[in-house]
Amino acid sequence: MNKDLTVGNVRSTLGRFILPLLGSMLFQQLYNITDSLVAGKFISSSALAAVGNSYEITLVYISFAFGINMGCSVVVSQLFGAKRYRDVKAAISTTFIYTFCFCSLLVVVGLLCTDWLLELIQTPAELMAPSAEYLDIYIYGVWFLFFYNVATGIFSAMGDSRTPFIFLAFSSVLNIIVDIIFVSAFGMGVAGVAWATFLCQGLSSVVSCAVLFRRLTAMVHSEKSVIFSFPLLGKILKVAIPSTCQQLFVSVGNIMVQSVINSFGAVIMAAYAAAIKLNNMVITTLMTLGNGVSSFVAQNIGAGKVDRVKSGYRNGLGIAFVFIIPVTILFFFFGRFLLIMFVSADETDIIEAGRSFQTIISPFYLVVALKIITDAVLRGMGRMLPFVISTFADLILRVVLAFVLSFVFGYIGIWYSWPIGWVVGTVFSVIFYLRSDKGKSVV
Predict the structure, then answer these.
(1) Is 303 helix (H, G, I), strand (E, B) or coil?
(2) Is the C or the N end of the chain the one with fewer CB within 10 Å?
(3) What is the pLDDT, as a whole number, of residue 369?
C-alpha cells in the first residue's frame, strides 16, 4: 500500500517505512551470498574464487541498475509528495521504456566483452572458464535485474516498503533451494549457481512489475498521462547519471582492486571473495537504509516540508548506528565463524586472510554509516554533484592505496585502503550537507 511520508511523527513514520526495507535487504543479501556459499561448500574453494571473481564485474551492471532505480525513485517520490499523480505515471512509463533500450545495449556489450573483462582483472588461467561461464549466464538475466530494481524503487518512492519485502523473501528462499538442487542433485557446478539466480531473479522481476502496473491503474487523476516524457526523462537522468557514476566508480575501483588481489593467487582470492561478501552485506544494509531516507527526504521536499528533512537525517543516523554497532562487534570478534559458512574449517590459510580483512575494516563501519546516510539526504534533495565528489575521493584513495600499500605490506596493504578512503569520503559528505540548500528539489 502506498504511504504518505510527509505526515505523522518523523521517527515512527521513518521507522515503520524502513523496517520492511531492512527485511528486504536481509533477503537480498541472502540472495547475493547464496551463490558464493553454495559454490564454496558444495563445489570447491576454486569455484568460490571464480564466483567471487565474476562478482566484481557483475557490480558494474548493478551500478547501472542502481542509478536508474535512484533516478526514478527520487523523481517519483517528489511528484508523489506533491500529489502530481499524472506525472508519477508518466515518470514511471518513461523509466521503463528507457530501461529496456539501455539494458539491451548493456547485454550486447557485456556478452561481447566477457573474456576481455576477465583478462583485464588478471583472472588466473585455471579460473577463466568457470568465471566466464558464470558471467555469461548472469548477463542474460540483466533485464530481470534492471526491471526488478526499478519496480522496487518505485514502490519505496510511493511509501510502500512491504511489497518488495514479500517478493524478495519468496525469491531468496527459492534461490537457495534451486541453487542446491542444481549443484548437488544435477551436478551443474558453477553454471547451476548462475542459472538458479537467473530463474529466481526473473520470477521476482515479472511478479513485481505486474503488481506495480496493477497498482498504477488504481491511481486516480483528472488528466490523461503521457507514455513517454523527455522533460521527465531529463529530470530522472539528472539523478540517475550521477548515481550511476558513483556506483560505477566504486565498481571499476573494485575491479582494479580485484586485479591486485588476483596477483596474490587463489587462496587470497577465495579469502577476499568470502570476506567481501560479508562486508557487502553490511554496506548494502546501510545503503538500503539510505534509500529509505532518500525517499523520505524527497517526498517531504516535494510537499514543501523542509523542516522534516533535518529530523529525518537525525533519525536515519540513529537507526543506522543502532544496527552497525552490534555488527561491528560481531565482525571484529567473531568473524571467523561467519567465514566458515563459505569454506571448510580446515582451510586455515583462507580463513586467516579473510579475518585480517574483517579486523582492519570493521572498526570503521560507524564512519561509513555516517557517509551513506548523509549521501542519502543529499540525493533526496537532488544534490548529486557533492554526492559523486565524496564517493570519487573515497574511490581514488582506495584504488591508489591498494596498489601502493600492497607493495609494502603485501595483501594486508590492500585491506588498509578501505578505512582511509571511507574517512576522507565521509568528511567531504558531511561538509557538503552542512553547506547544502535543504529545500532544493529536482522537479
Answers:
(1) coil
(2) N
(3) 94
Residue 133 · residue 114 · CB < 8 Å: no
Q: Which three cell numbers stand for residue 103?
A: 539494458
The torsion angle over the Cα atoms of residues 263, 266, 271 and 276, rounded to 10 degrees, is: 60
Q: Is the CA virtual torsion 26, 32, 34, 36 positive or negative?
A: negative
By residue count, the chain amounts to 443
- DSSP 8-state code for residue 363: G
The residue to which cell 569520503 is assigned:
425
Q: What is the pLDDT of residue 23?
A: 72
Grade residue 357 by pLDDT with cuts at 50, 70 and 90. Answer: very high
For the chain, count helices (H), then strands (E).
14, 0
Question: Residue 440: left (phi > 0), alpha (psi -120 to 50), or beta?
Answer: beta
User: Cα angle vertex 295, ends 290, 298, to 5°?
Assistant: 120
**Nearest of 152, 135, 139, 138 to residue 205 by alpha carbon:** 152
Q: What is d(CA 130, CA 168) in angstroms, rounded to the nearest whole number?
A: 27
Report which residue type is found at 236: I
